[in-house]
Fold each of these.
Amino acid sequence: MEAPSETNNANPSTVTTKRNSKTKGKNNDFEFCKVCKLNHNQGRRHNYFPNHIKSLSSFLSRFQSKISDVRFFLKNPSLLRPELASRNRFWCVFCDSDVTEHGSSFACEKAIAHLASVDHLKNLKTFMWKHGGGMERVDRFQVSEADLAKYEQKCISMKNEGASEQSRGALIGPSNDIHNELKFDYIDNFDRNHIGSRNSSFPNGVLPLQNHTNEKYQVSQSDLSGGAASNTSSYDNKSLLLASNAKRSNNVQGKSSLTEGHLHNGLVYSEKREANGEVSSAGLLKLTQISSTVHNVDVGNVHSGAPPPWFDTTNRIHLDPAPKPGTKMDPVTKTVKSKLNPKRVGAAWAEKRKLEMEMERRGVLLTNRFDANWLPNFGRVWQSGSRKESLKEFAVEAKKPPKDEIESDSSVQLQPYISKRMRREANG
Amino acid sequence: MSYLLKTLKKKEEVDSMIRDTIDKLLVLRFGRSSDSVCLQLDDILSKSEREVSKFASIGLVDVDSEEIQVYTKYFDITLIPSTVFFFNAHHMKMDSGSADHTKWVGAFHRKQDFIDVVEEIFRGAMKGKLIVNCPLPPERIPKFQLLYKDM
């Protein structure tokens, strides 16, 4: 009895002190969680709440997607038009600052610089520490120095190339008319090299495809002659290809027939070859081959609005005759199969049936095309031996009943046994 | 009670249900919805259907309908309710200490008993076993007598 009373006495004071300390802590430390957009007094505990973790991950993934856009420009620096500079801005959630692109000549230049800055790294680390993001994720939200150095180098080289150009604004995104003009232009005055130098300023990834590709030939050629191009040769072939396609489609679209288009192409090439010598001729050879394979117009391409080739594959699946079950498994069923025990009851049957059902759904196979007399595998009560035997037995039984009835009918006329002597006596 | 579960009245329906239930245990109750023991069983089935829905599906078969006679003969159904189990169109047996291993005859005492039985059979099937032992104690297994060809 003593012990409980003691505890009772002791308890109130401790409880009150505890409560005091708790309430003190609670009242004092209201803070705003940027991630949850919420005022709370939980202190560090708040970081482990599921809601916080959820919103933190969405918060970070949102910013991650933004950064991935920036990273694209980090890899492929591209020129920024001055009139678009004001529209390009980048809100850094870690530093709570807006990075504008005023006065930068490359897309996301300032943003990249910001992401690589020491301040950003510091803010990022404090954020991660405060909100429990995990320090190993820091690398995802900043730009490393090596990347920045590479980027800067690329920018400088681009700038140098661009220095020889006249107007940058006019070069980007000319309309279709200009494109046509240019096309004829360069056929006529082929050896205008400055167009080429202008084009080479586009990196691999950011080609404004259709419109500029016409000039690509010259571009690369001039580059080669200048000796400045390291990667242009491969890039060149690609662009040639694109150009040929674009041109062809243009011709198809327009009033002029396809043959004209080819003629036109041929003209171009011949001119090319003359002008550029053996280096480009390899690429040109390739090009002619490609254009010959592309000959059938019915297929169409991106420019003529035809569906991409991979759409056809899906169609083919529909048209394919039913593959034999077991020979080819769908990837889906394969994964499922791997999860379930391969030795489970009726595993083979299940796989087969799954394929069938898949095809039935697609309309390749008829539904319910199984035999009306189909019966499942079943082991009967009085049956010994394999289950197939019970099916056989049942089949026999199913045939029997009429016979049984006949037999029973005939056997109904039972007669008492009468011995010969008795018969004789009866007769006599 | 039978309106809570899918009632099959044709052989094709039973066929397609057996064929289309893949990697799940199929529980087929043969009986008639007016029978009192059937009602008891149906009550248990309908209540536990949702709980076992991840690994089992349940169908009721009306033994009175003409087209089902094939199955009642094939499955040797003489007493109702009889419950037959299938997995991937393979018949699953259970040794419950009674005369008939091929089916469960009678109702279950409670819902949990049914769930236990279904789970045991499903686990056995996933391990490749065609026959399993009944997880229930003998006092909760309904007793019945089976006659060989009416003798």
Amino acid sequence: MLKWLLGGREIQEPVEKSLVLCIGDEQPQNPYTELQVLKGHSDIVRFVAWIDDFRFVSAGDDGVVFVWNVQNGERLHELRGHSRPITAIAVFPLMYSSQPESHLLLTASSDKNIIMWDLDSGSQFHLLMEIPSSVKCLMIIERLDIWLSGGNEVCIWNKDAELLHKTMCFKDADVSSMIELPKNGIAAAVRKELVIFKLVAPSQESETWEIIEMRRLSNHEDDIRALIKVNDRTFASGSHVGELIIWDALEWTVQATESQFWNTAPQRDKQAEIKISKSPNQHEICINHLISDKENIFAAIGTGIYVYNLQTRTVIAYQQMAHDSRVLHIAKLANNQLVSCSEDGSVRLWELQELPPAEPVTSGLFSMLGIGRTNKQQSQMAKHKLECSVLKTLELIGDLIGHSGAVRMFLYFEDHGMVTCSTDHLIILWKDGERESRLRSKKLLQILEQDEQYEP
Amino acid sequence: MISEFSEQVGPQPLLTVPDHARLNFDLNYFSLRIMSVDYQASFVGHPPGTGYPKLNFVEDSKVVLGDSKEGAFAYVHHLTLYDLEARGFVRPFCMAYISADENKIMLQFQELSHEFSRASECLKTGNRKAFAGELEKKLQDLEYTRNVLHNETEIQKNSNEKGYYTSVAIEKANELANVERCIIEHQDLLMQVRTYSHKKSREASYVSYEPDCDAEQPEVGLEQSLDPGGLPAKANWSNRRSTYTPKFTRAKSAKCFEKKLKTLEELCDVYFFTQTLEQLGNLEKSFRGDVCYLLTRQIEMKLLQQQRITSFLFEDCVAFSDEEQTEKQRHGYKPLPSHNILSQNVVEDPCESNVAASFESYKSCVESVPIKMEQQVNIESCHQAVADSIPCKNLQATLDLLDIEGKEKGSISSGESIEVLGTEKSWPNPIFAKSESQPSLQCQYPEVVKRKLVVTKRTNSEDSIEVLCTTESLIPEDLKASYPSAIYEEEPAVNNVEECGLRADAMQPFTSPQDANEFSNTNIISNPVTLSNLPEPVDSSCCTGKESPIFTESRPTLVTEYSDGIINVPPQRSKSVDKISPGDSVTQGGENGLTNLTADQVLTSCEREDSNLPGNGESGQLLLEDYLDSMSYISTSWCSDRTPSPALPTSPAKRLPGKRKKQCGKNALWFIRQYSFAQQAIFSLLSGRTLVVVGEQEGKVKKLIHALSMFVPNSGRGEDPIKQWVTFPLHIHHLQTWKLIGVQRIVSPVGSSVLHSLNRYSRYISILDSDNKSLRCPPYRGLLITRMADHRTQIKRGSTYYMHVNNLLTRVCSKAFLYTFCHHLHLPIDGRESEESVACRRLNFLKHHLGLMNDDGKIVQYLAELIKLHYLHEPAKGLNQVLRFAYVSSIVCKI
């Protein structure tokens, strides 16, 4: 196409382009046939967060937070307060107990402020000035009515924005992400280490909150990039060099390690890989994002997507060159669909499909039956077994092209489609055109009916 | 022209609009002519039984008269204004619209009458106000006089103690009595004026312009308070009046002949006078141009009005709003200050009822309940339907409906004069009158035209025909009687009636509810005789000139437009052509060959014609040859070109400048001839896919853009979807607003990034490479655009092609409208129905009912989407547009 456009004067495209899975213009399974561009940000939009069924917030490097209506793209509020890029946001779940229902939002910025917003009125609720370090992550523990901020120290705050307790400073390091573990445990990723904290709520002995460092886990060889909670008993972390470690949430022990994702590619792709490997290999194997449903962990590693089954401890499906460049965010939708977004500015829709041939089915059965056989040997052998353990394929069913910069993040609304935010300062609402058209018809006819009632 | 029958000098012209009257036109002579019509019996004077003069609030009368000597014909509107100093307090005036073309006046009679009534109403309102003020002054004068006289008599009485009255005293006493009588008379007059305007304003339901003018005033006057300054009512009056110092009036001093009569400005309030002038100016402007032009423009406007819902798509936005503006003005939307409330009511009305009505009717229509109705029943139901909307619509009309009976007499002056005495005053029942007067009017107009040309055996002389439309005489029996005759008379012209197997009277439903909505006549005809006629609420937005027969023409067009594929409608074009053409017999001849053409095609060709025909206002006589030419052209093929006629309409009132239209059409023609893939390109535009024209030379690209611009649907939000020339890389949000973009191709870093962005968004855009003459776009399979952009088309003229495309686009729009507002297409009929079956029904509807195959459906769907968005759009929130697209593969076409 480009060649045609350039009238054949340009040189041929690099060969590696052909490696990336491409889908033509015909995408019958792609439901997103309508888009709406939301303009407002003046810099990279890094975060979008879900508020409720029809609202979301977006925040980015321009320090402004917008509240949007996902139904029609209306801008509901413009929250201005930060002077520097926003580094973390968190939306309070609906507070049903204390005050009249209101949605609260926490934003932390590199201007070292944290602001608590009232999303319904669009006003500042609390302003926390002069936090010692810029906060990299925020976590709300609704159960305990507190929230935590992680910078180069972890602080506990209550809902009235009073500092309850804070840890000592990490030297030269920031908490990049935190997750909640059972029994008031907190796992925080601090560079290569996972630090486990324990929260002590006020009790008879002590009036104040306390946070105690329990253990430091240094199994990763490089910086931890992703940390997720898989279920109550396990959590997982992924590092810059592509190590995925499954942890026991109670014992803080390693359950499984998978570090050879980039080798899972079949032989035939090897040559191509060598070619690419001239570019820094790190990018190719860095675990950028992890998500999980109860059975699988989906990892965005380099330019690829991998599906790791927790039971079999194997990669059951993968797409090594899912995107042209790094995959930044992935999400699992209902009906086995997977969405990924990447630095190449596209969002792709995948479907996890069973492999049709008969042979893998047996191994599929096998893996189904072989529940609970978990040991290190198996994971050691994983690499060897990978070729035959791939039971499913990730089929590309569609891609969404709209952004001209890296798509940082996206948000999926069941009823309204997808929201993507990008470095090109735009937010795009992707909608199912058919359904929108239907909805509009309904609305129009409703209006007509109302008019009719008023008319004699 | 406003003329007065002056008491002193007889008829004299007062002023003309526009100011510079034609030099060769003898105004004096003509004013004599028009004023010589003895248009009303004397109402003024002392009716028997009353002691003092009674004011009659005379209705205006409207007469058409012709003058063969001057070659001028005029619509003459007589009115009377009150002047205290005039004989019988009245001064007759008349306004006339003079034209060389008799047909023009005849056909536009209703409009003219309406407009003039408004102007005259304005004038009279002002006059009443001035008159009332005048009376008041006079009263004060008289009272003052009386006081003076009284005092004098008293003094005389006192001084004269001899007990007898001197002659001087007697004279004084007489004078005093005289003055007292005068006072009583004037008070009565004042009361009459006041109550009249009061009553009038109440009837018209507009705010009285003098709220403080209530019954109190005259009563106060009757008290005859001795101190004029102490009149309590005075407080109510403005300062201007209270500062007025009474002067002594001598009873006999007022000799009319010694006095200079008041000018028209003085007679009316200045404000009202200027208003009237303005109205008349507008009127003159709006009736500029020849008959053909006027008629087609009216049809066009009418159609546009009815298509208001979809018209934003392709019509010129500015022009349209302009039109609405003028439309409003015509409706009296630029009213006197006192009309405000009224106009607001009306303003809000049309759109809603339009939508609602069409929607409603459509629903019932699609549910395909074939109603077989007796004609009479039809009319009845029509009445009922009309009844709802009458009160509001009829206001203007009811203004005239006062107790005075309309009497019309016409002087038949010369051989060619036709008088239409078409006052529709004094309807016993407006509802009745409404629906009945229409058919009668329509029916009789053709008669007029016919008889003029074809010598019939009627008893009326062929030269002067009187058409009496006094509707009070029309009762249903009359109606029945008059219908068939009228229609039968038409029948020779309506050739196709027989073909369609319709009885002539079955046609009646098509003609009766003239301003009913588009769908009123969408009859489902499975069996030609079974007409399911839908009673239709009359659209109130169409109140101007609703009685005008011209609008029958709009019916067939609409019917076919909305009925393509579903409905089989007897073409009635004969009637329309009938009216357009003076060369009637020629028309007939031409028509005979037209059997298989649908009405709108003819109409369009007429429209097309119109733009080519000489359009100077005064020289409206068309050459017969011209007509022959055009008619044969119609009969040969509707898409064939006709021999070009040199003159283009020069009328300033043209909506879109003819030149631009022509240029646009010309470019488009060039494009479709030059580029074999024109259809695909147009398909991209019509289905909402942005078309990017890439090229190195700006001129070339812009030419292509210009050629294609007429195919770009507007979003209706005032954003221009066409961007002629960009030099920067496109972003996704550009594609949202711009649908036709010219992009510069240069060999530079910027240039390559531009191309890369095009490459990136290639799925959303079609790219036309003007340098290599190739196009990358989705393939098109369908018929619609094939017809629209046939590269072998015979059309040679730009404006003709423009009209052709406009016609087709309008048709598509109407389909889209239908699709959008069809209830069951989008909602399940009952709760159990699944979405799939509704979707299926939707597709079927597109395919089978609208006759849209393949990709044509996509066009309609896209347009429907635009309509929806347009009407759901809340302007306050300033929301972005959405970009809709489809995942389809593209092909590369080359010449």
